[in-house]
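User: Show me a protein chain along with its predicted structure.
Assistant: Here is one chain, sequence first, then structure tokens.
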Amino acid sequence: MAAGGNPTVDLERYRDYLRLLARLHLDPRLKAKLDPSDLVQQTLLRAYQGLAELRGRESGEVAAWLRKILANTLADAVRDFGRAKRDVAVERSLEASLAASSARLEAWLAADQSSPSEQAERNEQLLELAEALNHLPELQREAVILKHCHGWTLAAIADHMGRTAAAVASLLRRGLAQLRGLLDKRD
């Protein structure tokens, strides 16, 4: 049951989605110090504590609200490790970046769906995609995220991962095939 006695919002179902966004936006200098799962746990704790502030109950509204909380959690982590003062510009930048990543994921799933029922279906697909990505082996997940969420080229991914372009292409093929299999099982 959600905080405040409101059982209509299941924040737990957004865990994999938030973990994916945290992985995408965690400062590379902090990846050795912070785990995306810990950031998501902090985000969900803040969300449950502030559930009364949530205005809407639709999936898209909940996701946007959680992205804002995640952006604040990430900004706090950056500040804590950098011993910096609160920087509202960093928080807004992270929030915009999280929203842009979410939009890229949505565009990856479907284009030009505009009815409320189609938007709700797309939000469900987004949550399912995030959960499926979480089940991929780490190298496949990283390659797929860099290619399809960040829009990196094969050469850039290969350079970043310290692998050949052929090896990255193979990771992408296997990762996408496994994703399709995981998503097809849900249908």
